[in-house]
Amino acid sequence: MKNNTVSALLFFSIFSLSAQILFSQEALKSTEEEYYDFLSLTGITERPTLGYRTLSDNQWNFIETEAPLHDADGKILTDENGNPVMEKTMPSHVWQKNNLGKKRTLWQSENSGGNWFTRGFDHSVRFKAYGPEWYNSFNTAAPYGQNDGALWQGKGYNSSLTGGARLEAYGFEVTIKPQVCFSQNLGFDIMPNHAYDSEYSYFQNGIDLPQRFGDSSFWTFDWGDTEFRWTWHNFTIGFGSQSPWLGPAWLNPMLGSNNAASYPKFDFGLRKTAIYLPKFGWHIGDIEGRIWVGRLEESDYF
Length: 302
Fold this sequence. Notes:
By secondary structure, the chain is mostly beta strands. It has helices at about 1-20, 30-40; strands spanning about 20, 45, 50-55, 60, 65-70, 85-90, 105-110, 125-140, 155-170, 170-175, 180-185, 220, 225-230, 235-240, 245, 265-275, 280-295. The longest helix is centred in the N-terminal third of the chain and has 17 residues, at about 1-20.
């Protein structure tokens, strides 16, 4: 009994020391992502992608800066040549003392080297919890909502609950983050001259944008940002239902966003990669690329 107690205390101590806080993936259009994006305008953070981002690719890191090192009396320390001794520090920001939903290291290997293959992934186990987040809205006259995943914010009361967790280990990434939604979906005056047979279809050809999803309230379950992925260096391959956001649009990109329900897809490609000119070491730019295939379905009113 005594040995078990000592072992448990030792494990707890190691866990507490190794549970370092790291900046991690943020949900698209979340408060955290908007905040990090704001900080990127001042050079405190760096945007993690160029034009393709999902929750797994949306990892924000702070840019380290150098500042003079001071002694106990507040004087700047200098070397033998009289130059100030510099140290790397993390930049300060308004919310730095707040909990922004960061990722924690549960275990870190002491040997992160090895051969050329094993150097391609991080030798650690990391964990992050998402939510739970409960969103509610009430539309008094007509449907309205944006960037809300599978939630249909029709007239009346609307609600969605999402939450989950993410585990990373030796290049593997597992994210479970489903979404459950309810829409009261009350009736309202819809636009006439429907393009298709359904009375709830859109009034223009070629757009699967129902004005109303049927004539009664309903529940929806969606896998949301659930995904299984493996990454080696910057090459990544994965399968899941994370919604890809394409392009620099802040609110409503024309191709790809989280404005609708997710869909199953398989993808592979390169995450954001810096390119340096050989021999000179000059940074000449960044590249990224992704190829994916997925399965979409039409609504019942198209």
